[in-house]
Amino acid sequence: MTHSRRRRRAVTGFTLIEVLLVLVILVILGSIVGVSVFGVQKQALEKAAKTQVESIESAIKFYKLNMNKAPESLDNLITQPSDDKGNKWKGPYWEEDTIPLDPWENEYQYEVNGADYKVWSMGPDGASGTEDDING
CA 45 to CA 38: how far, in whole Å? Predict the structure, then answer.
């Protein structure tokens, strides 16, 4: 009889404590993995925005070579400005039909002041002038 009791006890399976302990460990591991994946994704989106800003800035530089000034808007990289009286515009300077949105579905921001200009993404918070803005 002692032999059959040992056998029965060995086959009974996991206790409730053991199952709960395994679940707690899985939840902890899942949260660690989730946080690290989110961090990697955030870095990838920021890198994509920075690369896109740099591409837009390159297109603006080509525009300036022909027009001797920065474009009034990013649309002038795609369509000839109406004030191009000397037919200096040799564009389009951007290959696509529109300037793309940033990775957070916001328009890239552009300011021009004479020969100086600035292009940036508003970043994840979608607000301009904050810490997470992304410049080239």
Answer: 11
